Amino acid sequence: VKLYNNKTSYLIDEKDSLTNVPANTRYEETDTRKIYRRTTTTATFDGKSENDQTDTYDDDIRGEQIQTGHALIGKVITSITLKAQRGGTTGTYKLGLFNATGVLQHQFKTASISTLSSSYAEVTGNDLGSGDTTADRTVGTNYIIGMTNSGDTNNRVQLRQSTTAGRANEIQGKCAAAGSSFVAGGENADLYMEVSYVDEVWKERNTA
């Protein structure tokens, strides 16, 4: 069967070029054409085995330094969970993402130390803030996920460790204050920690 286009040439439909392709859309053509779009999904980094304790007080920034090669680098955090208990009732704490020298990039939660449990319990921060930008919540190389507080040695926060000794490409430690160098804590394990983050994936159109 021959088809003509009312001129002198054959109809040509080789699909060798596409026009009007929406942004963040990818076309794959096999035996059956499928359309994929770039979308986001929420994923979780889980480091929640438990062991001993570590203290944070006197405005130390205590947490996990995320080093080169870690899966969280470049991810946009939506929530952080640590396990903590209070060592007093005076002062406030901040749960957040800090840069490599302990400067707060995004605060996911702040509250009085008195609101913490007197025994270890999970503390989750998911406040994205009215003036939030995703850049504030994006994990950079050597960034710190952790907690700081304004208490003292009698009003400190204790953070639970994980039984996992030395998760890959991260290390527990602290900055003495914002703008100071990170010092590895000398602990044998990393902090009990769960981090939810946004991940970008290709997703087939009209699929769940």
What is the approximate shape? elongated
Class computed from helices, strands and strand pairing: mainly beta
Strand percentage lies at: 35-45%
Number of strands: 13
Largest β sheet strand count, sense and barrel closure: 7 strands, antiparallel
The ordered string of helix (H) and strand (E) elements is EEEEEEEEEEEEE
End-to-end distance, in Å?
41 Å
Q: Give me the number of helical elements.
A: 0
Rounded to an integer in angstroms, the radius of gyration calculated over CA atoms is: 24 Å
Unreliable stretches covering 5 or more consecutive residues: none
Helix percentage: under 10%
Mean pLDDT: 84
Concise account of the structure shown:
This protein has 208 residues and is an all-beta fold. The protein is 0% helix and 44% strand. It is elongated and about 70 Å long.
How would you characterize this protein structure?
- The chain has strands at 25-28, 34-47, 53-56, 61-66, 76-86, 92-98, 104-112, 121-125, 143-149, 157-160, 170-175, 182-184, 193-204.
- It is mainly beta and 208 residues long.
- The strands form two sheets. Strands 1, 2, 3, 5, 8, 10 and 13 form a seven-stranded antiparallel beta sheet that branches.
- The chain is built from no helices and 13 strands.
Layout of secondary structure:
Layout: E1 25-28, E2 34-47, E3 53-56, E4 61-66, E5 76-86, E6 92-98, E7 104-112, E8 121-125, E9 143-149, E10 157-160, E11 170-175, E12 182-184, E13 193-204
Antiparallel strand pairs: 1-2, 2-13, 3-10, 4-9, 4-11, 5-8, 5-10, 5-13, 6-7, 6-9, 11-12
